[in-house]
Amino acid sequence: MGKINLLSQETIDKIAAGEVVERPASVAKELIENSIDAGATAISVEIKGGGIEYLRITDNGSGIDKDQIQIAFLRHSTSKIEDAADLANVRSLGFRGEALSSISAVAKVELITKTKDSLLGASYIIEGAKEVSLTDIGAPNGTTFIIRQLFFNTPARKKFLKSESTEGSYVFDVVEHLALSHPEISFKFLLNGKEKLMTSGNGVLSDTIYQIYGRQIASNVLEINYKDERVSINGFIGKSVIARGNRAFEHFFVNNRYIKSNNLSRACEEGYYGFLMGHQHPFFVININFEDGAVDVNVHPTKQEVRFEDEAFILEILTKVINDRLRKREDVLEAHIDE
Ligand code: ADP
Ligand code: MG
């Protein structure tokens, strides 16, 4: 095995960055979540070259004070929690304080930001964890991050990326998911200069579904609403006419986070029993909101999984809520009228 080495901070940072930053889509997710946490009501995302060459996020949120910028880029620096006790009640999307340090370790980052209380904004440039400059600059309120040449200093990682069009489509998915879980925020997505998505931010989920997926889908969904003392479930489920061959149109948000869960998917599909053919998968956007503490969001840095206190209970309710909704006679009539 040879001599034992103590790794340099630079190497440690690059390894840690791999935990959070896997591809352009993970950069987009972290930065957009920061914009949401900063109270933005409009977020625009632009990518070129699959987001590997260029990825820009602009928000109209709180901005960052000039004297806080360097701190924000340190590992484990966050303004969102103070100690472990706060973990039980995380309300923000971020809390690990890892995104900015990780992204800046493996890309060229330009930040322009201004708070409403300061006259001037600030521009900060940091490339591969090395600070280049911090200067005053005129800027609107809010924050813009431009990320260039992702993985320019970690070629091994860059090799694992897929084609530009595939990476771009993953970024698109991320924007879509965040737009669906935040109908109160206006989202815009530009891909190689073309507008691919624009939501109004009027707070109405059915409008957001229409703006993202178009009329065919939006006119074939049914609203669901359920509430007891532990959990509330609401959103829209698709009629069988808009079923798909894969699970790409199954969207779950738990306490406002997009998550993937085979168990939840299966429970919902079970609710469709008798309404779909075996190889078909439904369209749905389902928000599940638990009272504080019943769900653990602290499972993995990318946080696409969550742990439930009582998963069997939530699976059973989901199946029932969906099945009851599909069975309602009115919808059978509605379906006839539609035709
Ligand atoms: P976390 O989101 O877990 O706190 P990050 O590394 O993502 O950690 O961000 C570090 C800090 O930088 C945040 O806690 C926040 O104070 C600040 N910040 C990052 N992005 C923005 C933004 N778009 N607007 C305002 N503040 C931001
Ligand atoms: Mg964050």
Give the helix/strand layout.
Layout: H1 9-20, H2 24-37, E1 42-48, E2 54-59, H3 69-72, H4 99-105, E3 108-114, E4 121-127, E5 130-137, E6 142-148, H5 155-159, H6 164-181, E7 186-191, E8 194-198, H7 205-213, H8 215-218, E9 221-227, E10 231-238, E11 250-254, E12 257-259, H9 262-271, E13 284-290, E14 295-296, E15 307-308, H10 311-327, H11 329-338
Parallel strand pairs: 1-7, 11-13
Antiparallel strand pairs: 1-2, 2-6, 3-4, 3-6, 4-5, 7-8, 9-10, 10-13, 11-12, 14-15
Helix pairs in contact: 1-4, 2-6, 6-7, 9-10
The chain binds adenosine-5'-diphosphate and magnesium ion (MG).
Keywords, separated by commas or semicolons:
single chain; 339 residues; alpha+beta; Heat Shock Protein 90; Ribosomal Protein S5, domain 2; 2 domains; eight-stranded mixed sheet; five-stranded mixed sheet; 11 helices; binds adenosine-5'-diphosphate; binds magnesium ion
